[in-house]
Amino acid sequence: MKRGFLNSSKVKKKPLYEAHTSTESAQEAIQDQEKPGPTLNVIKLPFGKVENRGVPNDYKVSGLTPTEWSHNARVDYDPNQAVMTTIPPRNFNMPPNPDGHSTWIVRGVTKAKVLNRPGYPKVVPKPSGPPAYEVRSTPDMGMGVFATRDIAAGELILAERPLLVAPRDIGMMVDPSKLMLREKYSPDEFKQITMMECEKLLEFVVHRYMEPEHREAFLALANSHQEDGSGPLLGIIRTNGYGIEGLFDGPKVNEWESNTYGAIVKVGSRINHSCRPNINHKFDLDAFCLSFFAERDIPSGKQLSYSYCYMGQSAADRQAELAPYGFSCTCPSCVNATPESDKLRTEHEQRISTAEASVARGAANKATFASLIDLKKQLVEEGLDASDAYPKLLKAISALCGKLGMTAEESKYLKDMKNYVL
User: Fold this and answer.
1) Cα angle vertex 265, ends 262, 268, to 5°?
2) CA distances from 17 to 163, 225, 258 (A)
3) CA triple 140-1-170, angle to 5 deg
4) For helices 390-403 and 366-382, angle between their N-to-C axes, nearest 10 degrees
5) Helix (H, G, I), strand (E, B), or coil: what is residue 197?
C-alpha cells in the first residue's frame, strides 16, 4: 500500500510503473535510438496489476545482465555498465557509516555523477527534539506510522537512507537480448518474462548482497502484487517505491522518465495513504537520504499519511488510480465527496494560478484579499493544504498583504508558506 512514482517533489504523481499507451512502441523505439550502447534498453513494466498467464513453457529464465558488485568508491566504469554497489562506499577495514548504507542498482556513470558531486558526502539530517513517530499496526491498513508527540508544520520527522535504490524501470537492467523476444511472444507473455527476469536480478541483489538487517526490513514490507507474476521482491518494489527527484541516468530526465530511480525505505515505506496527507518528503542526493516533513500540525497519536495518487482529481478518479494498490480509500475526502469538492479539487490549481497572475498584475483591494482567504479556507477544509499549489496561494496572499500595507499579515503568510516549501 505504498506510493507511486512522483512527478514532483510534492504531491502531483505518476505511478512507479506507467500504464502502456497506444504510442508506447514508438516511444520505446525513440528511446532505444537515443540511448548509446547496447546495454541501454527499455523493457517497460506496466503500472498496476497484470493478468498472470505465467512464463511461457519454452522460455528459460537467464537471470542477470553482466554487472559488477562494488562496495568501494570506484567510478571508472564503461559508459553504460550496470553496477550493484553500496552507497556510501563501504570499506570493510573501517567501521560502517553511522548513517547507514544503501544497496544501489545503477549505471556506473550515474554512480560517478553522485560520488563526484561537490556537496557529497553529507550527513543525514537529524530531527530536533524527542522521537516523533512509531511504527505499529493499524485496524485496517496493515502497519502504519504514528506521531508520538505533537509535530509542528514544517518539522523534520525522520530522515533515512534507503534499503534499496533501483531504476524506476528496472527492466532496463535485464539482458538487452530480451528485447528481441517481443517478436516471438505476445505482449502479455513478454510482460511475464520481463517481470521474471527482474525478479531474478533482485534475488541476486537482495539475498546475496543486501545487509541482513536491511534484507529483513525489505522482506517485511507490504506486497500488493502477489498474484500477477511480479514475484515477491519485484512486488515489494512496485508496491513501496518512492520516486527520487534529481537522480537519473544521462544529462537530463527523458520525456517518459524511464531513466530515473526509485527508493525503498524502512520507515517511510510504512506510511499509509490519505487524500488529505499530513506529510511530505524530499530526497537529498548529497546525504543520499529521504527526509519526511510535517505538511501541517500533526497531533500526537495521529497516523502519518501521504497521498499515493494525484490529489487534483475527482474522488472516482482517485479511487481508480489507487485500485492497483489493492485498497479503496476511506479518508474523509473520499467518503464525503460531493460534486462541489470534486470541482474544487480539479480546479484548485487553475484558481491559484489565476490568483497569482491577478496579484502580479497589481490587484490590491480588500475584495481580492477576502476572495483569496475564502479560497484558502476551502482548500484547508478539503485537505488540499497539502497540495503542490497551496504554498503558491500563501505567497500570493502575502504579496497582496504587502501591497495593502498589512505588514504583520504579510510576514505571517510568508512564514506559513516557507513551512510548505521543501
Assistant:
1) 110
2) 20, 13, 9
3) 165
4) 160
5) helix
Query: Which residues have CB under 8 Å from 213's CB, separation 6+?
Result: none
Per-residue pLDDT tens digits for 206-241: 998 899 999 999 999 999 888 777 889 999 998 999
Q: Where are the beta strands (DSSP E) in 40-130?
A: 68-70, 82-87, 102-107
Tens digits of residue pLDDT in 282-332: 999 999 999 999 998 999 999 999 999 999 999 999 999 998 888 899 999
Q: What is the pLDDT of residues 331-387, one digit of tens each?
A: 999 999 999 999 999 999 999 999 999 999 988 888 999 999 999 999 999 999 999
Q: What is the end-to-end Cα distance of the chain in Å, rounded?
A: 25
At 422 the pLDDT is 58
At 264, list the grid cell.
Answer: 525503498
DSSP 364: -
Antiparallel, parallel or unpaired: β 242-248 and 260-264:
antiparallel
Helix, strand, coil share (%) of the chain residues, nearest 5? 35, 15, 45
Across the beta sheet with 279-284, the strand order is 156-160, 289-294, 279-284
Can you spell out the DSSP letters for 381-412? HHTGGGSTTHHHHHHHHHHHHHHTT-HHHHHH
Strand 82-87 versus strand 260-264 pairing type: unpaired
Q: What is the DSSP letter of 305?
A: E
Cα angle at 316 between 7 and 235, to 5 degrees? 55
